[in-house]
Amino acid sequence: MTKPLIVANDIAGLGKVATAAALPLLAACQIETALLPTVLLSSHTGGFPDVYVEDYTQGLQAFLQQWRSLEQDFSALLTGYLAGPEQLSSILDFAKEKNLPLLADPVMGDKGRLYHGFDQQYVKAMRQLVSQAHLVLPNLTEAALLLDRPYSGELLPEAVLEEICRELAGLGAKQVLLTGVQTAEDQIGFAYYDSETGSFCIFQGSRLPQHFYGTGDMVTALAAAAFIQKVPLEQMLPLILDFVSRSLLSTVERGADLRLGVFYQPHLAQLWTDFQRLAAVDSRCQPRLKHPRPSLGHAAG
Ligand code: PXL
């Protein structure tokens, strides 16, 4: 797995979301990454005042230009929070040129509302990206926007979730992972649909009442890791659910400002162990001591 996965997402200084949330998880799953920054922000936009925001479109296009000239190979392209339609089309052109599978988290909104700075023109451009995606990972707000359906909250019957997944696949994406779904008040998880096999399944775990930042970014990164390491998503989803729920419990126990993001650090070692069991990771790449300890018989002094 030496070809890097391109991670096109924002860099927010304060609050672990987007790139900051994704990179440690991808590293724990042994994935090489190439960063494609989309926007620079002093913090995420979900609750901090006076956020400094710098659109990085020019830089993004210059990054892609250099990568073209280097004739660098990549494994896939993962997209998250983007600045606007111009970035979407630059990314889409690059993916087409390099024949890269697109894994698209269509970050646009939550709880029935578009995030500040996004409009219907962006939604339309996002439909275009989704039509070319191998995997799309919207929450229910983003799914409603993409499908031009009314948003009816997060608590939905299974049959409606399946209908939404099938309609999203109808836009062109091969696989659909709907995040933040609830079929009961105290549960939360995913609905997953594979248009090639026609299989549909729901995975849910216990839901905590608090709002956590960056959980969607964690799910997206781990789903991308599974794709790169050729682990079927049906097998990866229980692992993701388990990792996220243990991390959320640690976040609550720590008692810090929830805007800082999910405290998943205590669970990274377990993530690597669990993921390794699923992925047939090459045994030659296992961690090993660079300077093996001398056996007791030869120990110095
Ligand atoms: O986690 C999604 C996300 C990504 N990037 C920025 C955000 C958010 C959610 O609030 O503000 C900048």
Please describe what this structure looks like.
By secondary structure, the chain is α/β, with parallel strands linked by helices. The protein has one domain: UDP-N-acetylmuramoyl-L-alanine:D-glutamate ligase. It is built from nine helices and eleven strands. It has helices at residues 18-28, 57-70, 85-98, 120-131, 140-147, 158-170, 215-228, 233-254, 268-278, and strands at residues 5-14, 33-43, 53-55, 76-79, 102-104, 109-110, 113-114, 135-136, 175-181, 187-194, 199-206. It has a nine-stranded mixed β-sheet with strand order 3-2-1-4-5-8-9-10-11, sandwiched between helices. A hairpin with a 5-residue loop joins strand 9 and strand 10 (187-194). Helix 7 runs antiparallel to helix 8 and helix 8 runs antiparallel to helix 9. The longest helix is centred in the C-terminal third of the chain and has 22 residues, at 233-254. It is globular. Residues 282-295 and 297-301 have low confidence and may be disordered. 3-hydroxy-5-(hydroxymethyl)-2-methylisonicotinaldehyde binds next to strand 1 and helix 7. InterPro entries: PM/HMP-P_kinase-1, PyrdxlKinase, Ribokinase-like. One of its GO terms (molecular function) is kinase activity. It holds the Pfam family Phos_pyr_kin.
